[in-house]
Amino acid sequence: MSQDIFQRIQREIDTHPVMLFMKGEKLFPQCGFSARVVQVLNRMGVEYQTVNVLEDAEIREGIKAFSQWPTIPQLYIKGEFVGGCDIVVDMYQNGELDSLLDEKKIERAKA
Fold it and tell me: Mean pLDDT, to the nearest integer, of 66-84?
């Protein structure tokens, strides 16, 4: 894996407080797991950016090596790797994601 890919990934994570590496785009997720994470973030009113790993094979493989996590989607909040779909959904359901967003001072749209 090239350092260049890791630098590109790190730049995305550093630039956007909430960054989701996913299959597809937030308006058109292309896998059920990515769609579930998008639903959670949308429900919580979080502003977030996405990278469609299907458009770039280097990013798709690079993000797995970068995080040492084998699956996509991958959610990062303020530079911290949170996890994939199951972890994000569990955290949402038990309130941990809400606490993490508060702790990291991530603003949310008011319902």
Answer: 97
Q: Nearest 5°: phi and psi at 51?
A: -125, 125
Break the chain into its structural domains and give their ranges.
3-103
CA 6 to each of CA 23, 101, 104: distance values in angstroms, whole numbers, following the listed order: 19, 25, 23
35, pLDDT greater than 70: yes
Helices (H), the chain: 3-15, 32-43, 57-67, 85-94, 96-103
- Alpha-carbon span 86 to 93, nearest angstrom: 11
Q: Is 56 helix (H, G, I), strand (E, B) or coil?
A: coil
Q: Measure the CA–CA gap between 52 and 69, rounded to whole angstroms.
A: 17
pLDDT of 1 > 90? The answer is no
CATH class for domain 3-103?
A: alpha beta
Q: Omega before 17 cis (within 30°)?
A: no
pTM for the model: 0.95
Q: Determine the residue type at 16.
A: H
Say if residue 23's pLDDT is above 70.
Answer: yes
